Amino acid sequence: MQELIYNYGIQLVLLIFLLITFLQSGLDKILDFKGNVSFLQGHFKGTFLAKNISFFVGLLAVLELIIAVLIIIGIGEIYTQQTTFYGFLAAFLSAGVLLILLFGQRIAKDYEGARTITVYLIATVMAMYFLKA
Question: Is the pLDDT of residue 2 over 90?
């Protein structure tokens, strides 16, 4: 166990960070779907994204939960096989979702929100770097 943590500690910490981020976000979108849609309709009012907010919230929730499952599998993979394929795949998909969210924040002209997403993106790129085979 000590060797596993020594060899994969950075990867595990980054995967747990991403798991907390995407599991909470995906569950929040599902458990408070109407609230999220209502908030985002106001946030994107006047943009070409405003018409399809319900679809985008549902899509993002599904993607975030898929990522969370892949992260859980990836953590298990590290413990059982000392490999990182699923963790890397989860981090790669996380980067894609974060880029989508960054695009949305820029369209909404929410530059502070975009800056926040950038912090998550940096951690995600670090995860990709440390999880690459």
Answer: no
